[in-house]
Amino acid sequence: MSLKEDNFSDWYLDIVEKAGLSDKRYPIKGMNVWTPYGWKIMRQIDGYIREEFDATDHDEVCFPLLIPETEFAKEKDHIKGFDSEVYWVTHAGLDELDVRLVVRPTSETAMYPMFSLWVRSHQDLPLKTYQIVNTFRYETKQTRPFIRVREIHFFESHTCHVSEEDAQCQIEEDIQILERIAKKICLPYTLLIRTEWDKFPGAHYTVGIDTSMPNGRTLQMGSIHHYRTNFSVPYNITYEDENGEHQYVHQTTFGMSERLVGALIGVHGDDQGLVMPPGIAPFQVVIIPILKKDNEATVMGACKGIAEILSKHGIRTKLDDRDDRPGSKFFDWEIKGVPLRLEIGGRDIENEVVSFSRRDTGEKGTIAVANLVDGINLLLDDISENMLARANEVQKSRIQDVESMDALPEDKILRLGWCGCEECGHKFEDSTGFKILGTPYHPEKYSGKCIVCGKPVDRPAYAAHTM
Q1: Quick one: DSSP state of residue 172?
Q2: Coil, helix or strand for 49?
Q3: CA-CA distance, 69 to 191, in Å (whole number)?
Q4: Higher per-residue confidence, 456 vs 6
Q5: Who contacts 385 (Cβ-Cβ below 8 Å, separation ≥6)?
Q6: pLDDT for 244-254, tens place per residue?
Q7: Residue 402 scores a pLDDT above 90
Q8: d(CA 66, CA 53)
Q9: Which string of DSSP letters, residue by residue, matches 61-129?
């Protein structure tokens, strides 16, 4: 297996294959097969997303895959932004279609014609919906599992509001939801308001959600968008206010994709394989029987009993009863990143304990059987806290303040002064090869000069090479 620090790209592909997360051999490039373990991880993440959005009064919907070109073309900036990436359906059987169909790249143009029918009065607002679906974009760069694919497992929320201020409150709620989801996955991130030339097509503004990867590049895991009335006007989404006047709704969206899986591989994995956060690990605990010829029945009975107890208490548990050597099982589950490994043998049974090994630190110890559930829950909580704290420290260590375009560190996230002028932004990007990620959504204290023109600035910008 390649080493993470020596060759991140090869290491990443090795991990995906050896941990059984995805199979790239499907005969359409960039449309990979979710294999069982990878799909279990994605389903855990989806489940937590559903919990969060159901709890904040969003309703789950499921819209059709195909969008008529007539609807797709209504918002001019949107179609301009996606036109080179979409797949077109031109025929039904042998018949050429009168109106071409777009295979969903994202769902604004599918949903909003229906929103114009659903919303009639201010009493219908806010309208808060979400869906978890596949989207399709013709990715022209080198594809990579979970990070650059052409069929994308995608979450998106879409909301409508009576005013710009109410829509902004939704943005704040989205950021709180993101914080809870990221904590569950133990992922650090930055919230950066994208540049005008890099915002979502048709948005008033876009907040990018970025994390850093071991090769010094950043990965955008998702984004949050405030649309104002940029979509409600062309799609005629209006409501009758309390005075009987018709007003256009203000809209927001929040999207994340399977890139969350790619991020957790890159952020937490090591040279032995995955390191799974307990919150979304398919199996939080794996039990390995340590058998001898004279105690097989006793040890297996004890292992089954402990697995039943843990499962009954909501701990996702796997008993590995394969006819194989313990060392081989240790190796397999280490690659899959199971947070906690329990080993149970004759001596453990005699001492009324189970032996454990943590995947995040390698720490080993024992837990009394009488205190098993509480002990394991405490360990899982500590693993989560340790993984998030460590990932946050690593991300902070990759940020470097710079004041000049000379000799920029290639493997860092740059914090710099930028006046906000598009001309200076393009000059910086063209001269250095770095991409300006944007300015902090939450203001940061800063005093400096624009790295291009020298004009005084009081807020920083961030720039990086991107995945």
Answers
A1: H
A2: helix
A3: 33
A4: 456
A5: none
A6: 999 999 999 99
A7: yes
A8: 25
A9: ----SEEEHHHHTSSHHHHHHHTTT-EEEEEETTEEEEEEEEE-SSSHHHHHHHHHHH--BGGG-SEEE
For 23, the token pair is 């199979």
Contacts of 283 (CB under 8 A, 6+ apart): 316, 317, 318, 336, 338
pLDDT of residue 467: 92
Q: Which DSSP symbol is given to 370?
A: G
Residue located via tokens 């143009």: 109
Of the candidates 342, 359, 347, 357, the residue with the CA atom closest to the CA atom of residue 305: 342
- At 365, which amino acid appears? G
Output the DSSP codes for 418-450: ----HHHHHHHHHHHS-EEEEEESS-----EE-
Residues 6+ apart with CB under 8 A from 39: none
Residue 401 neighbours by CB under 8 Å, 6+ apart: 414, 415, 416
Distance of CA 87 to the CA centre of its chain: 24
Q: Distance of CA 5 to CAs 8, 10, 79, 188, 271, Å?
A: 6, 10, 40, 19, 9
Let me know: does 281 contact 338? Beta carbons within 8 Å: yes
In 3D space, the residue among 457, 27, 119, 53 whose CA is nearest the CA of residue 255 turns out to be 53
Tokens read off for 394: 């690593």
Residue written as token pair 């104002």: 228
